[in-house]
């Protein structure tokens, strides 16, 4: 079985979470973890499970303007933020509009500020809604959020939690022996 984890990442947090989810899925699946710009139709069509994640910008999925603002923030002199190598590619919002037909099951995740979701918003809700609109069946009751600090750094326990979430996804889809 094959899993494809597709992510959008500006500062590397969502990238690290995607890699950790992929590690968790690897107990059952052959896993590809790719930035959205490398999520070609052939990879999507070959997947049995499609996991999609993005950072939360302005209470939801990023737009070209919010990605540009994030890039500007990273470019400020004396700043501690650096852009992820794939940050200048397309966003998940745009990619989902062109998602090819697939028989895959799906799951959604995001990274967001460590604060109540009512205050921060959640990109994963928008991802999940768009996946359903494209005809995919979600395998979890709710999308998952992984938390970052106010300084835009992943909270210390989040990669371990993402790895465990990936394991849980894999085991929930594996037929009982």
In short:
By secondary structure, this protein is α/β, with parallel strands linked by helices.
Label this structure with key terms.
single chain, Flavodoxin_CS, Rossmann fold, 6 strands
Please tell me about this protein's structure.
The chain has a single domain, classed as 3-Layer(aba) Sandwich (Rossmann fold). Strands 1, 2, 3, 4, 5 and 6 form a six-stranded parallel beta sheet that branches. α1 links the parallel β1 and β2. Helices cover 38% and strands 20% of the residues. It is an alpha/beta fold. The mean pLDDT is 93.
Beta-sheet strand percentage? 15-25%
The number of distinct helices, counting runs of at least 4 residues, comes to: 7
Outline type:
globular
- CATH class call: Alpha Beta
**pLDDT under 50 segments (min length 5)?**
none
Tally of separate domains: 1
Distance between the termini: 16 Å
Furnish the topology, listing elements before pairings.
Elements: E1 2-7, H1 13-25, E2 30-35, H2 41-46, E3 49-55, H3 64-75, H4 92-97, E4 105-113, H5 117-120, H6 123-133, E5 137-138, E6 144-148, H7 158-173
Parallel strand pairs: 1-2, 1-3, 3-4, 4-5, 4-6
Helix pairs in contact: 1-7
